[in-house]
């Protein structure tokens, strides 16, 4: 204090102003000379920190809606962070997501999905390990296996439709579809259900399901501010130890951990072939099949747990959208009903695939719902890459969302409209060929990480 008071008056103000100017000049110099300075910026502060532009848009949940508007103005490449570039270009998508691509998943984001320290197919970033795991999982996901799942699906669909028929009031579609998919996928993965349909039919959404969804909305915090998230976790652990009170989010997540461990133990207690088999359907379970194939128990458990995310939110959102759209397109619904009646309401997969109106309805529903509304960040490999005349060095994060291409007006005129006829011939008797439309139809992404559940 004595030193400061002995300095000439106004000195402190000059010193602060000087430091500020030096910081700004340094930042401007860095921004102008860094290797991504030629890429248009999403916002003034985007090159300085991803917390300045990307994080607030992720936190509000609007990033996949806001970026296409910026791409319209700024072109196919837009910088959204110091080392991160968003791209809206199918040509670039093909380079980055082609089979055998060297652009690995961004560990900052995919690491946030790892369960108990055991990466599963969705969160594995190493391409070699990913390819080995994918081969193993093909045992239950390949197209040839899908008809074997018919009984399992019908069992839960029947339960669900009966509950809807008995419901005294209007049904909340997203919640009820979520319950249906949660039971199907938990049964498929563990050989037993989380009991979501029962809970929903009794008037409540199952906390295990609702809180896993809520966790997804915290992903921007988990991946951008991992230190803060860890502190929140420790705080709630302390709170629970001292007071016995646990916030609803952690209670729901804890319920799911307990349920999955118990279900996994029950499944793997049975020996030999039985360990892999679902008692209801006779279909091999995911967890049992992976354990039987030599995957360590905790990794097989992580795979089954992680499957609950990508397997249920996408399918339930798509189903809810299709049902809503059918309710608002009465004539199409009537025609589809007649087609299904003609085949005796068969549930055989090949028969259903043979009905053009059914295929058009599902394809348009999946397109229109755009359920995988996430950005899929990848790391530029050694040597960098040139895209749209711009060089992007090794380590740059390149990111895009498959849903942008599904709502692209070039390939899908009036993209916001649910229009199954865009897939059909004018007389609506057959599916119509359209290579541009099919090129843009990438709801399951492409290449090595194409959705394993797409069948
Ligand atoms: C309409 C339904 C679905 C849509 C739109 C969809 C979409 C996607 C997309 C876009 C990806 C790529 C993600 C990335 O690269 O990060 C993906 C991956 C994945 N999906 Fe799906 N999905 C659907 C249904 C399912 C189902 C039913 C399951 C499981 C039963 C599933 C399990 C997975 C898994 C495990 C991955 C990771 C694949 C890998 O990295 O190799 N999905 N999905």
From TrEMBL:
Keywords: Heme, Iron, Membrane, Metal-binding, Transmembrane, Transmembrane helix. It holds the Pfam family p450. SUPFAM superfamilies: Cytochrome P450. This is Uncharacterized protein. It comes from the Eukaryota. The lineage of its organism: Eukaryota, Fungi, Dikarya, Ascomycota, Pezizomycotina. The chain crosses the membrane at residues 12-29.
């Amino acid at each position: 204090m004595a030193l400061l008071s002995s300095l000439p008056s106004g000195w402190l103000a000059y010193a602060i102003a000087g430091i500020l100017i030096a910081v700004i000049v340094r930042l401007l110099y860095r921004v102008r000379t860094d290797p991504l300075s030629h890429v248009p910026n999403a916002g003034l502060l985007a090159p300085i920190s991803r917390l300045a532009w990307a994080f607030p848009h992720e936190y509000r949940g609007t990033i996949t809606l806001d970026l296409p508007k910026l791409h319209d103005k700024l072109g196919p490449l837009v910088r959204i962070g110091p080392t991160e570039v968003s791209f809206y270009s199918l040509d670039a998508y093909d380079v980055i997501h082609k089979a055998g691509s060297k652009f690995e998943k961004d560990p900052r984001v995919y690491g946030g999905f790892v369960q108990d320290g055991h990466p599963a197919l969705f969160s594995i970033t190493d391409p070699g390990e990913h390819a080995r795991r994918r081969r193993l999982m093909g045992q239950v996901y390949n197209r040839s296996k899908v008809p074997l799942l018919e009984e399992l699906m019908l069992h839960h669909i029947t339960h669900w439709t009966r509950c809807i028929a008995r419901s005294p009031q209007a049904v909340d579609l997203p919640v009820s579809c979520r319950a249906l998919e949660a039971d199907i996928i938990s049964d498929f993965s563990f050989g037993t259900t989380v009991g979501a349909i029962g809970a929903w039919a009794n008037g409540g959404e199952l906390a295990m399901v609702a809180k896993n969804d809520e966790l997804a909305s915290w992903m921007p915090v988990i991946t951008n501010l991992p230190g803060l998230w860890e502190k929140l976790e420790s705080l709630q652990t302390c709170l629970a130890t001292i007071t016995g009170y646990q916030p609803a989010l952690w209670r729901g997540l804890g319920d799911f951990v307990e349920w999955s461990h118990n279900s996994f133990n029950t499944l793997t207690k049975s020996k030999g072939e039985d360990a892999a088999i679902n008692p209801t359907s006779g279909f091999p379970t995911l967890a049992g099949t992976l354990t039987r194939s030599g995957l360590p128990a905790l990794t097989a458990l992580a795979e089954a747990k992680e499957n609950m995310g990508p397997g249920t939110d996408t399918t339930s959102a798509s189903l809810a959208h299709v049902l809503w759209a059918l309710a608002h397109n009465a004539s199409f619904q009537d025609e589809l009903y007649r087609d299904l009646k003609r085949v005796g309401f068969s549930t055989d997969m090949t028969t259903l695939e043979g009905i053009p109106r059914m295929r058009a309805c599902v394809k348009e529903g999946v397109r229109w719902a755009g359920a995988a509304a996430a950005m899929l960040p990848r790391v530029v490999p050694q040597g960098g890459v040139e895209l749209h005349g711009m060089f992007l060095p090794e380590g740059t994060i390149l990111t895009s969302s498959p849903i942008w291409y599904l709502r692209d007006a070039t390939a899908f005129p009036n993209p916001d409209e649910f229009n199954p006829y865009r897939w059909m011939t004018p007389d609506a008797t057959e599916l119509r060929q359209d290579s541009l439309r099919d090129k843009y139809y990438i709801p399951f992404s492409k290449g090595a990480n194409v959705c394993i559940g797409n069948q």
